[in-house]
Amino acid sequence: MNLRRLTAVAKKEFLHVLRDPRSLMMGIGMPMMLLFLFGYALTLDVDQVPLAVWDQSQTVESREFISRFSGSRYFDLRITTDNYRQIEQAIDERDALIALVIPPDFARSLSLGEFAPLCRRG
Fold this sequence. Notes:
The protein is an alpha/beta fold. It has helices at about 5-20, 20-40, 60-70, 85-90, 105-110, and strands at about 50-55, 75-80, 100. It has two domains: about 5-40; about 50-110. It has five helices and three strands. Helix 3 links the parallel strand 1 (about 50-55) and strand 2.
């Protein structure tokens, strides 16, 4: 596009906005409203994610670990189970979005200072 044409179109639009107060309000008011909406009204925080738990360890350490999830605003402990089948069913039925499986040797691994994996199919 030619610079002369671009300047002419810009000048025409500038004069149009100055002559019509509604256009000026639309040009200034709409972006301000969008800033307000995106800043305060819309949030992308993930809160209250439905959680299913299978505690194979049944120790004080594992119960404390689970209590940290249930005490958080990010997770909502919905289901405690004792097998994978119930976890799969809860996820399929959308009763839970994620599952936490604590293995039987969780407390022993922690006491030895080792890495304690949380989901392992056995």
